[in-house]
Amino acid sequence: MLDAVDSNPLSLYVMHPFWNTIVKIFPTWLAPNLITFSGFLLLVFNFFLMAYFDPDFYASAPDHQHVPNGVWVVVGLLNFIAYTLDGVDGKQARRTNSSTPLGELFDHGLDSWACVYFVVTVYSTFGRGSTGVSVFVLYLLLWVVLFSFILSHWEKYNTGILFLPWGYDISQVTISIVYIVTAIVGVEAWYAPFLFNFLYRDLFTAMIIACALTVTLPMSLYNFYKAYKNNSLKHHSVYEIMLPLASPVLLFLLCTTWIFVSPTDILEVHPRLFYFMVGTAFANISCQLIVCQMSSTRCQPLNWMLLPISGRNASSLLVNSFPHPGTHPLRSGRGEPAEQALQYTALLAEEAHARLTRTGGRENRLAGCRSTVNNCCKYL
Fold first, then answer.
1. If you ran DSSP here, which 8-state letter would residue 162 be given?
2. What predicted TM-score, i.e. pTM, was given to this entire model?
3. What residue ranges in 108-177 does DSSP mark as E strands?
4. Mean pLDDT in runs of 10 for the chain (380 residues)?
5. Close Cβ partners of 251 (under 8 Å, ≥ 6 residues apart)
6. Which domain holds residue 315?
7. How many structural domains does the chain have?
8. Alpha-carbon Rg of the chain, whole angstroms?
9. Dihedral pair phi/psi, residue 352, rounded to 5°
10. Which regions of the chain does DSSP assign to beta strands (E)?
């Protein structure tokens, strides 16, 4: 059984009563994991739908062909349905007495992967250009969301309890509303300042950062402090406590280094694919942490997905050592090798994440067996 605490007023007093009503619609034979996966696929669909109408994130900029208003309605509805399914799957599992460790891994593993899809999709409401934010700023905002996610699982690794972050519910409801409002008023409405010279894009940026710094981070530290005062921490050395954050921090540093040393400005040329690669590698790291939580095993300090990214950085530094543009293929102006390297890294991350999901069932069965043995030993 998942030990989780949800103290968000929006979730407790609005969404949970709504989900309790919705879950009664589903037949009891419907598997909770199917509900989880269906919601995730809706987010993936939104991601590719926006990739079709806004491939380079310029569709919302002035003097560009905008995304049709009907598409915003579809994206908004699907985003809210996906959020609803994510809230209902656990209730369906408890309703049908089918809660399993595999379901926990599947649910939170897909949640970690979903971060990149909904962040990149909502980016299209503002996009880049004079009225939007740069692809690098969005890259940093993506990492704010990713670190907010990993913090909750860092808490569980150390306290044994998953404190559900407040920012998730608030962001999903807000994003769904923004999509519908965009369909009604058009993207041009976001061009005008709403307060002095403060643009809506600035509000978008400020809300993400403020939510992380004033809600998510303080609550995580407070929950950790309570466990420390109650002497209920599962790990006591600073090294063991901070171990789950090693791979995410290294992934951030390596990907950021890749951006700055790339001889072909890889983020500017292929932002969507770069975001996908980052989000998928992060999800792989998150899933391995979730498996360690459930099996009560030590978190590994390094994820092997860091190796190909490190190799790519090394090759970029080597390319930059050539003084003349024509002395190396990556400086020829075409950029095909750099694009292929990004594609290969993204595909490698996706395959590794899919493989982890397939093998996660065995890890969870091992955790379940270990828990059963421990419970039996208590009676001996």
1. E
2. 0.86
3. 162-163
4. 74 93 94 95 97 94 91 97 95 90 88 94 90 92 95 91 85 94 91 82 88 90 91 90 94 93 88 93 92 86 84 74 51 50 60 57 42 32
5. 278, 281, 282, 285, 303, 305, 306, 309
6. 235-367
7. 2
8. 22
9. -65, -40
10. 4-5, 162-163
